[in-house]
Amino acid sequence: MNAADIWLTIGLLALATVLTRSSFFMLASTRMPARLQQALRYAPAAALAAIVLPDLVLNGGGAGTAIDWTNPRLVAGAGATLFFLATRHLLGTIVVGMALFTALRIF
Questions:
Q1: Using CA atoms in the order 68, 73, 74, 77, what is the torsion angle rounded to 10 degrees?
Q2: What distance in Å separates the CA atoms of residue 28 and residue 88, rounded to the nearest whole number?
Q3: DSSP letter, residue 41
Q4: Cα(51)–Cα(58) distance, rounded to whole angstroms?
Q5: Per-residue pLDDT at 60
Q6: Percent residues over pLDDT 70 in the chain
Q7: φ, ψ (nearest 5 deg) of residue 64
Q8: 3-class state of residue 92 by DSSP
Q9: 3-state SS record for 52-86
Q10: Nearest-CA neighbor of 99 among 88, 83, 70, 43?
Q11: How deeply is 4 buried, as exposed, middle or buried, from its count of CB atoms within 10 A (0-12, 13-18, 19+)?
């Protein structure tokens, strides 16, 4: 890779960063379709699932999966999910999940 390629890459990355970060200001007056607005409501939940789920099912260091009942992270996540579905209480879900994880790690 020569110097021109490096500067071209840096320039394109800077342009992409400016466009994506300023799109909220440039598109503020633009009305989005109702279906797109409805689909965007699921974006935070999808992002959270993408962050949390690999930690629940992967072994330490990403060496394979640990989908069985001896995995304390998976069991605590399942318990926290059941608590959330029953109560819809976010803070309680975090507390229950951490308490289950701690108990499973100790015993």
A1: 160
A2: 32
A3: T
A4: 12
A5: 66
A6: 96
A7: 85, 175
A8: helix
A9: HHHHHHECHHHCCECCCCCCHHHHHHHHHHHHHHH
A10: 83
A11: exposed
Question: How many whole angstroms separate alpha carbon 6 and alpha carbon 15?
Answer: 14
Q: Is 8 helix (H, G, I), strand (E, B) or coil?
A: helix
Distance CA 89, CA 70 (A): 27
Distance CA 52, CA 101 (A): 14
Task: Give me the pLDDT at residue 61, please.
Answer: 62
Is the separation of the CB atoms in 105 and 70 below 8 Å? no
Residue showing tokens 């996540």: 77
List for the chain the helix, strand, coil content (%; round to 5). 75, 0, 20
What token pair was written down for 12?
């394109």
Give the pLDDT band of residue 107 (cuts 50, 70, 90): confident
